[in-house]
Design brief:
The protein has helices spanning 16-26, 38-48, 89-104, 118-123, 131-138, 167-170, 173-189, 216-227, 247-251, 261-272, 307-323, and strands spanning 5-8, 32-36, 54-56, 68-72, 110-113, 145-150, 153-157, 197-201, 234-239, 255-258, 277-281, 286-289. The protein is of the alpha/beta class. It folds into 2 domains: 1-141 and 283-324, Isopropylmalate Dehydrogenase (3-Layer(aba) Sandwich), CATH 3.40.718; 143-279, Isopropylmalate Dehydrogenase (3-Layer(aba) Sandwich), CATH 3.40.718. The chain starts with a strand and ends with a helix.
Length: 324
């Protein structure tokens, strides 16, 4: 079986299908298998005037050169680009389940995901906070870490898709310590960094200012860092977030561990939007994703840029090589 990547285009009314088709048109030799409704892809290809032959595929079948192979998952309702439909929310989750099954069975080497719309999935009655948590549950993994990487800048997160009001309670010795260990293991095993250097951010302004601006930094984060001190790594922190991303500070580290989503990712996306890759650390398989959303406002208009998806595919292929 040749090396294959399972790709889920994500929300069918968003730009995911278009990005996948454009990427295939640009790089038809990429070893991709779409997990989607083939008629969705064919219709989108016609609308974009792209000559992309979509061929249905099942595990074990031979690959046809030049074709975009597709493991069929049927839509529940017709799709209008830019228009969300709760009827298709179960379809989105089904594509993730089927694609994860391919990787777990060894029929694909890694999973690459396109953007989903969390709101419409929840509106359909499915509790869904994001790919990261959903894939962890599918894999029966208690703890995973979300990391975004753009070039040499890597930002991992202790908490992911939580309301800001719930973040302080989620900063615990266990959550911080496990995030540190998972990040260190990934930097060694997936990125080939023998002795990782990680800046661990504080939660509060100025990392708590000695307890005057919050107690979590001294009482929770610092002890968690100290407990990981024998992990053959160079850990620093808690570091004030407002100084952690200066060029000099970043030269001294291989990754930054932020306490919450909007503490670290705005900087990462400012520095590398369109070429950043979302990587889930701690899963029993490789998973990468785009760094953008569904872009409903431009869906179906031929304006979607497949660059981020291309970087996600390339990162997955590189990680496959690192782990082999």
């Amino acid at each position: 079986m040749p090396l294959l990547l399972a790709v889920t285009p994500g929300e069918p009314a968003g730009i995911g299908p278009e990005c996948l088709l454009k990427l295939h048109a640009l790089r038809p030799d990429l070893p991709l298998v779409a997990v989607a409704d083939p008629e969705l892809l064919r219709g989108a290809a016609r609308g974009l005037a792209l000559d992309v032959p979509v061929q249905e595929w099942a595990p074990g079948q031979e690959l046809t050169p030049g074709a975009l192979h597709c493991l069929p998952v049927p839509l529940a309702a017709a799709v209008r680009p830019g228009n969300l439909d709760t009827a298709n929310a179960p379809y989105v989750l089904d594509t993730l389940r089927r694609a994860t099954g391919l990787v777990q069975a060894g029929d694909a080497a890694a999973l690459v995901t396109g953007p989903v719309h969390k709101g419409v999935i929840n509106d359909a009655g499915e509790a869904f906070t994001g790919h990261t948590e959903f894939l962890a549950a599918l894999s029966d993994v208690d703890r995973v870490v979300m990391m975004l990487a753009a070039g040499g800048l890597r930002v991992a997160l202790v908490t992911t898709h939580l309301p800001l009001s719930r973040v302080p309670a989620a900063i615990t010795p266990d959550s911080v310590g496990s995030a540190i260990r998972i990040t260190l293991r990934a930097l060694r095993e997936s990125f080939g960094i023998a002795r990782p250097r990680v800046q661990v951010l504080g939660l509060n302004p100025h990392a708590g200012e000695g307890g005057h601006l919050g107690h979590e930094d001294d009482a929770v984060i610092a002890p968690a860092i100290a407990a990981c001190g024998d992990e053959m790594a160079d850990l620093s922190g808690p570091v004030p977030a407002d100084s952690a991303f200066t060029p000099t500070a970043l030269e001294r580290c291989d990754a930054v561990l932020a306490m919450y989503h909007d503490q670290g990712l705005p900087v990462l996306k400012h520095a590398g939007f369109g070429r950043a890759v979302n990587i889930t650390l701690g899963l029993p398989f490789i998973r990468t994703s785009v760094d953008h959303g569904t872009a409903l406002d431009i869906a179906g208009r031929g304006r979607a840029d497949p660059t981020s998806l291309g970087h996600a595919v390339d990162q997955a292929l590189a990680l496959c090589g690192t782990r082999s």
